[in-house]
Amino acid sequence: MTTLPAYQRITPGPLHATLLAGTVPLFLGALLSDIAYTQTFQIQWANFASWLIAGALVFCGLALLCALVNLVRAERKAGAPVLYVLLLLVTWILGLVNAFQHAKDAYAAMPAGLVLSAIVLLLTLAATWIGLRAGGGK
């Protein structure tokens, strides 16, 4: 069994995989916090969601950076992980919009914040599935 050198790797390395997988619980926690806020109207749930989104954006941004490095280094015939990079980019952009939405007053952030959290979580799950399955290349 031969392995590709690190510069030809199309699957995520350990750091990249950890950053990618770290986005899922943070965005999930933000969605659950938004659901808790809509049920209880306790402002702290909206604050939790804001912090979780900020942490998820850090993880997602670093995973996007790693994915861009993999995209540049991947052999073109090996199948460049373009879809994976695009999903991460859209996830990060919508996550940033969600962070701006949550920066409003807690009452004003809903229901758009809840909807955005759900969409961003679905995008994160799709990007993680594609990224960890085959590095987005297959």
From TrEMBL:
The chain crosses the membrane at residues 15-37, 49-72, 78-100, 112-132. Keywords: Membrane, Transmembrane, Transmembrane helix. It holds the Pfam family DUF2231. Residues 14-133 form the DUF2231 domain. InterPro entries: DUF2231_TM (IPR019251), UCP029509 (IPR016923). This is Membrane protein. The lineage of its organism: Bacteria, Pseudomonadati, Pseudomonadota, Gammaproteobacteria, Pseudomonadales.
